[in-house]
């Protein structure tokens, strides 16, 4: 079904998008009678007893911190636009992280504005109002509610989000005009809304905008209690998704890695919004490709499945969890030996996550264990100190041991080195601990039996006041636990 089915002939002033539709000319001109019929007979569905959304109070605190950091400046945070896939179909929309964090809203094209006012700011939103029934846009425009579904009225959105709302169709012109008439340093979060950026271009600088983005990235480093609950929910749904996959391994063996991707995706869509990143469903030697997202390979009993996947909640917080599972339910001796090394490295890493520790500590703790094992197995010549100093273990450990987690899977990515990689951990930070060992299928420096084995174990760790809490602990992790869990699901 496409919009052309209702292609009109005579309404382009009222609904510009109709111009595109009329080219097809599938329908004759819209009669006055039809216009009249379409206008009338609709119930008033305004929702008048809404209460503020749970996250609105938390978003207000974040906006207060933003306001305090940039006094006297105009701050513009767009949600982003739909991206065309082809013709009049679009990719599914995922609102910009900065906008979601500061508003709790996820509406396409929306814009948050902090306008300097006295010692602080007036914050307000630009949103698309409900579709007009008088001029026919509700059924003639591609953005009409008859096509895309009912949206909140501006009054409803104001109650839910705790912010005044204006018509987004005026946003670019109004912002440009205000920037002219009330000069102030103006910053926009770039990369999401070319129209808003263009309207403000004479008043913004690349450097100034980048500073805003860095600040907003750092604002997300410490999660509040509401965000922690979201991340826990993301991990709980992810546990269910992994369980679904284990239950369906026989189907995956009969088909391909795609069955695993689809199985996890179904859970993500039913229990959340989406997957938080492309699921890595890597069977056999594909496990040695760090971001294997093609997921088109065979799933063979006797090999390992590395599944790295996370459910994103309806509020857009994501888990990021990896388990490496024996496809036939039991590790062989070498698989178990490598798995145990990665497990021990992860345990050492998790133990190093606590308030006051350096962010770098958990990586170093994990690398230490992996380097020791690689020397013990004769794959590297000791001493271990020399291996670590030269980084020789990295041929098989390949990546950093973790990252911040939140609305983005690699959250806070624009934070400065001193605030992130060189930081000291604080309660409320959430990060992954995910060491791995990867022996490529064509690696001639290891015995043949190792080739094609990849193992990663990844959990989502909250820094607490006195240590840490593993938010993804519900998923079995030791080799023995993994085997009995798989057996219990497939018995
Ligand atoms: N889960 C994918 C990554 O952390 O890169
Ligand atoms: Mn990760």
UniProtKB/TrEMBL annotation:
UniProt key word Hydrolase: yes
Quote a single Gene Ontology cellular component term. Answer: cytosol
Key words, A-Z: Aminopeptidase, Hydrolase, Manganese, Metal-binding, Protease
Aminopeptidase P N-terminal domain mapped to chain residues: 53-197
Broadest EC class? hydrolase
Gene Ontology MF annotations: manganese ion binding; metalloaminopeptidase activity
Q: Which reaction does it catalyse?
A: Release of any N-terminal amino acid, including proline, that is linked to proline, even from a dipeptide or tripeptide
| Name used for this protein in its record | Xaa-Pro aminopeptidase
Cofactor dependence is on: Mn(2+)
Q: Which domain of life is it from?
A: Bacteria
List the SUPFAM superfamilies hit by this protein, alphabetically: Creatinase/aminopeptidase, Creatinase/prolidase N-terminal domain
UniProt-listed Gene3D superfamilies: Creatinase/methionine aminopeptidase superfamily (3.90.230.10), Creatinase/prolidase N-terminal domain (3.40.350.10)
**UniProt xrefs under Pfam families:** AMP_N, Peptidase_M24
GO biological-process terms attached to the record: proteolysis
Give EC number(s), comma-separated: 3.4.11.9
Which family is annotated? Belongs to the peptidase M24B family.
Indicate whether Lyase appears among the record's keywords: no
């Amino acid at each position: 079904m496409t919009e052309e089915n209702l292609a009109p002939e005579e309404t382009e002033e009222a609904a510009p998008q109709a111009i595109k539709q009329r080219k097809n000319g599938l329908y004759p001109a819209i009669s006055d009678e039809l216009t009249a019929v379409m206008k009338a007979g609709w119930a008033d569905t305004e929702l008048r007893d809404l209460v503020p959304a749970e996250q609105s109070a938390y978003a207000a605190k974040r906006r207060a911190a933003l306001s305090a950091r940039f006094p006297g400046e105009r701050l513009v945070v767009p949600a982003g636009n739909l991206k065309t896939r082809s013709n009049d179909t679009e990719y599914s929309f995922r609102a910009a992280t900065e906008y979601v964090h500061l508003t709790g809203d996820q509406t396409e094209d929306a814009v948050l504005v902090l306008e300097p006012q006295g010692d602080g700011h007036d914050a307000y939103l630009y949103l698309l109002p409900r579709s007009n029934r008088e001029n026919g846009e509700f059924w003639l425009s591609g953005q009409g509610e008859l096509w895309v579904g009912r949206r909140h009225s501006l009054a409803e959105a104001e109650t839910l989000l705790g912010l005044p709302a204006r018509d987004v169709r005026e946003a670019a012109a109004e912002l440009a005009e205000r920037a002219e008439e009330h000069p102030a340093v103006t910053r926009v979060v770039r990369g999401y809304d070319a129209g808003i950026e263009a309207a403000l271009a004479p008043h913004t600088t690349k450097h100034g905008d980048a500073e805003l983005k860095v600040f907003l990235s750092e604002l997300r480093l410490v999660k509040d209690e509401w965000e922690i609950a979201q991340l826990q929910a993301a991990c709980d749904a992810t546990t269910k998704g992994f369980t679904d996959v284990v239950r369906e391994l026989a189907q995956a063996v009969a088909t391909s890695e795609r069955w695993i991707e689809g199985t996890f995706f179904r859970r993500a869509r039913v229990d959340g919004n989406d997957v938080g990143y492309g699921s890595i469903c890597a069977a056999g030697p594909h496990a040695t490709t760090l971001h294997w997202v093609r997921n088109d390979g065979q799933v063979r009993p006797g090999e390992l499945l590395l599944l790295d996947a996370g459910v994103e909640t309806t509020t857009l917080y994501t888990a990021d969890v990896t388990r490496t599972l024996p496809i036939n339910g039991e590790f062989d001796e070498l698989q178990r030996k490598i798995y145990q090394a990665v497990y021990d490295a992860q345990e050492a890493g998790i133990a190093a996550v606590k308030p006051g520790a350096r962010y770098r500590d958990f990586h170093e703790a994990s690398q230490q264990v992996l380097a020791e094992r690689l020397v013990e197995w004769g794959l590297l010549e000791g001493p271990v100190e020399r291996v670590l100093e030269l980084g020789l273990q990295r041929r098989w450990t390949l990546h950093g041991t973790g990252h911040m987690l939140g609305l983005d899977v690699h959250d806070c990515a624009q934070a400065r080195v001193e605030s992130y990689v060189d930081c000291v951990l604080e309660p409320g930070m959430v990060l992954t601990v995910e060491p791995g060992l990867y022996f490529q299928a064509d690696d001639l420096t290891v015995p043949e039996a190792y080739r094609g084995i990849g193992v990663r174990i990844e959990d989502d760790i909250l820094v607490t006041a006195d240590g840490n809490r593993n938010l993804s602990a519900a998923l079995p992790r030791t080799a023995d636990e993994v085997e009995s869990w798989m057996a219990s699901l497939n018995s």
